[in-house]
């Protein structure tokens, strides 16, 4: 019992002391007695700590004075302690979001990645549209030689396709009983006019002229020219065979009759085409035909005459699209000196179009991700950020920028894919985290909020690393 009392009494006194000390600490009386507070210790510790500087892109870089980051060259910022970090957490998160997707490259990395930049400029943009075409007959310079009266082809002056015929040279001679009778009627009317013109009665003398004009009109309807009618009147006897002339000079492209063949009124004897001018029907793809206009100059090249271009102008654009080739046809009218261009010949066409002043960049400066087009802009030496751009017209090596870039910006023309890959490896997401992009476009996976893990006393802190 004596031993138990020796243990129990000190233990009871110790418990009472702890209870009293706890009550004094909570009520603040202990701080008045001792003159010590938690805030005073934190303040002394904060005042005694020296300010440190770190890199926002490489937080493990810690220095005791301001300067530049030895890795990316960015300016160091002041490192915040726990109290300051708590008050400026929102600003830090905003700065981190703004820097998301940016990539910094050292001079060595730029050389290894072969990164080159050019300045965005506004200049004249010219585009060249290449197309293929086929030479066709000029339909306004084609004609058919037809029989104006039924009869027999007594003689053919043209016996083969491809022969050249002139407008003032007959191509055939036809015998027709109806034509012979009409000539005789005309000669009788002329004879009657000569007999009745001396009549004292005006109605009789004028009637003779009317008969002549009626007979002459009948002959002209049969295709007889006025010069032939005048020759008939001078000869005083009808012609057995009537010459047939072509309405224009050209080449015979089709021969449909033989000598001795009987023809009816309206039958086609020959098809004639004037090849001094031709049409070239070119096919332009549907994404290019809005740029072609009537009156534009077109240069034609043929494999048959290398190095000798022909020139023409667009005269008509067909109002329909070929569903098989997805092209629109345009008609080019042009001269054909020496008839070098033959119908159905394949040719190449080139149309040069001036698009005026525009902001242009090399084609290699734009990355096409499938959903959008991206250009990497150098905002400061060694620092690149992605920009979404809207493209316009495209030439062989340049592309028009409608929005996203302005004159004076520097864009990467080589190594852009390596920059994008570097951004994704660093967790920036590359072009998926461009400034101004909507969250719907990014579609981040939902992440459940988690409490920060408690710091361990013996764990290695990267913030303590100094260089």
Automatic annotation (TrEMBL):
SUPFAM superfamilies for the chain:
HlyD-like secretion proteins
Region (Disordered) residue ranges read 424-467
A single BP term in Gene Ontology:
plasma membrane copper ion transport
Q: Which Gene3D superfamilies match?
A: 2.40.30.170, 2.40.420.20, 6.10.140.730
Q: Does the keyword rRNA-binding apply?
A: no
**TM spans, by residue?**
7-25
Alphabetically sorted, this entry's keywords are: Ion transport, Membrane, Signal, Transmembrane, Transmembrane helix, Transport
Q: What one GO molecular function would you report for this record? A: transmembrane transporter activity
Q: What is the protein name stated in its UniProt record?
A: Efflux RND transporter periplasmic adaptor subunit
Give the organism, scientific name.
Answer: Oryzomonas rubra
């Amino acid at each position: 019992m004596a031993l138990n009392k020796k243990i129990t009494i000190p233990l009871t006194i110790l418990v009472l002391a702890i209870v009293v000390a706890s009550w004094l600490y909570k009520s603040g009386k202990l701080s008045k007695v001792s003159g010590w507070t938690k805030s005073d210790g934190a303040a002394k510790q904060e005042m005694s700590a020296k300010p440190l500087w770190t890199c926002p892109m490489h937080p493990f870089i810690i220095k005791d004075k301001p300067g530049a980051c030895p890795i990316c060259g960015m300016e160091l910022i002041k490192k915040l302690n726990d109290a300051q970090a708590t008050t400026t957490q929102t600003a830090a998160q905003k700065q981190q979001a703004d820097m998301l997707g940016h990539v910094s490259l050292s001079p060595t990395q730029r050389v290894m990645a072969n990164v080159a930049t050019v300045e965005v400029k506004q200049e004249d943009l010219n585009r060249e549209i290449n197309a293929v075409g086929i030479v066709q007959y000029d339909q306004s310079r084609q004609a058919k030689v037809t029989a104006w009266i039924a009869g027999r082809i007594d003689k053919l002056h043209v016996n083969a396709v491809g022969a050249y015929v002139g407008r003032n040279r007959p191509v055939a001679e036809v015998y027709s009983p109806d034509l012979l009778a009409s000539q005789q009627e005309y000669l009788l009317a002329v004879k009657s006019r000569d007999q009745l013109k001396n009549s004292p009665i005006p109605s009789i003398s004028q009637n003779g002229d009317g008969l002549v004009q009626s007979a002459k009109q009948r002959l002209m309807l049969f295709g007889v020219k006025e010069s032939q009618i005048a020759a008939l009147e001078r000869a005083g006897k009808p012609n057995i065979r009537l010459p047939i002339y072509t309405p224009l000079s050209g080449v015979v492209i089709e021969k449909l009759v033989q000598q001795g063949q009987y023809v009816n009124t309206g039958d086609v004897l020959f098809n004639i085409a004037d090849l001094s001018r031709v049409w070239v029907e070119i096919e332009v793809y549907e994404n290019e035909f809005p740029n072609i206009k009537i009156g534009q100059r077109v240069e034609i090249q043929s494999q048959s005459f290398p190095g000798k271009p022909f020139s023409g102008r667009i005269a008509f654009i067909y109002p329909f699209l070929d569903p098989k080739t997805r092209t629109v046809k345009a008609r080019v009218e042009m001269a054909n000196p020496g008839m070098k261009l033959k119908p159905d010949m394949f040719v190449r066409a080139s149309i040069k179009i001036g698009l005026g002043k525009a902001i242009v960049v090399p084609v290699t400066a734009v990355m096409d991700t499938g959903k959008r087009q991206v250009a990497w802009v150098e905002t400061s030496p060694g620092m690149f950020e992605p920009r979404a751009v809207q493209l316009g017209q495209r030439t062989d090596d340049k592309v028009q920028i409608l929005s996203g870039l302005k004159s004076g910006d520097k864009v990467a023309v080589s190594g852009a894919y390596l920059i994008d890959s570097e951004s994704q490896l660093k967790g920036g997401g590359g072009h998926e985290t461009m400034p101004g992009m909507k969250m719907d476009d990014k579609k981040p996976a939902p992440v459940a909020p988690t409490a920060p893990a408690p710091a361990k006393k013996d764990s290695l802190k990267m913030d303590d690393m100094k260089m």
